[in-house]
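Protocol step 4 of 5: obtain the predicted structure for the target chain.
Materials: sequence only (see below). No template structures provided, no constraints applied. The aim of this step is simply to have a reference model before the mutagenesis design in step 5. Sequence pasted as it appears in the construct record:
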Amino acid sequence: MRPMDAQHPPIPAQHHHRSPPSRTRRQLLGCCGAVAAGLFTSLGAVPAQADAQDASFASHDIARQALRGLDPSQLWDAHAHLLGTGDSGSGCRVHEHMAQWWHPLEVLRQQVILGAAGVPRSAPSVDRAYVRRLSELADGFPPGAKWLLFAFDQALDSQGRERPEWTTFHVPNAYAAAVAQARPDRFEWVASIHPYRDDALAQLDAALAGGARALKWLPSAMNIDLRDPRLAPFYARLAAADLPLIVHCGEEKAVPGAGRDELGNPLLVRTPLAHGVRVIVAHCASLGAALDLDQRRPERRPAFELFARLMDEHDGRTRLLGDVSALFQANRSPAVWRAVLANTRWHARLLHGSDYPLPGVGPLYRLGQLVDAGLLAPEAVAPLQALRRANPLLFDLALKRELSLGGLRLPAAVFHTRRHFEAKPTQRAQKVPDGDTA
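Step 4 output (structure tokens):
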């Protein structure tokens, strides 16, 4: 891992890895547009609002109402993605298929995501444009609010060899740390370290020293089996430092990666929980299905059902949390929406997250469905839509604050997430003896 010096620029100028020029990007999008139009019509980006004043909470009544009763200094968005192509020397990388016209759906996947992040196709640098837009949206919030920016490690095989063909995108730890250090008023960072690496423990110690607030894994894309005995020393180090492990469980649509869907089974989270690790299940495993491994003859059950089972087990009640990012998108079940709002015993263990940049992706959020489910007042739809055009991050927060089921709402504790990421200094400094390696 490279040194994390706060004085270094967030996007170094050396080691350029150039993305295709803007003309090539336009040609690629044109080639794939006709092929994929029928599949991706609904995935257009929400138009970016150029007026910074309109993007501020002070310009929208519904945003001011959403922030009422919240302490901005405790409002940390627990799930925000940092992306780039490496065109500034950041070390970021996307899969080569995303720039090849003969893989039109992958090309369009990248264009949709970057469009949602407000990155124009003419941008001289995707890396810089992405961070600039995210900073502008963050500055629409009151001072004190922050975003946890995710690094994302490469996929490795079981022998610990990097597999670039399995890696949809890569965001180095050093880059995530540098972006956060450049704007400490708005950003914190989350490390991503594949535990099959020979130097995984050393990288974890470096991330702790560099101020990482959590560790992120996407097992199905990265090829990580949470039950692998080799992970025991890694879990011990996480538990000793009280560093939360953010794990994506359930179906993964945006990052296919290694394609090991069976590794996203929520029940596999029992292993790190048993090692004393605090685990945050991304999106509350609210999408897709997985085998119910507790049955003699396992059958596929909704992943959310398995997550709910874990939340009520002993280790789950003490160390398991779930983030509510993407939870109220149109591809989730109304039964999931109702369960999360109604299950008040979970609320202290739920964390607000936006899954940025997805709040800016077309009608992923169909407010009419939430109205039909009896969770959103019809009169809230128009102001929420206006807010989304101005600031998708404010929209995501305001939507969650507006939802109600028989008077039950997500309480302020869901949005006051900072407490979950501030380990005591003694825990940060503590280590387990070096013996086995992950």
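Step 4 remarks: Residues 52-286+301-429 form a domain with the TIM Barrel fold (CATH 3.20.20.140). Residues 22-40 form the longest helix (19 residues).
Proceed to step 5.
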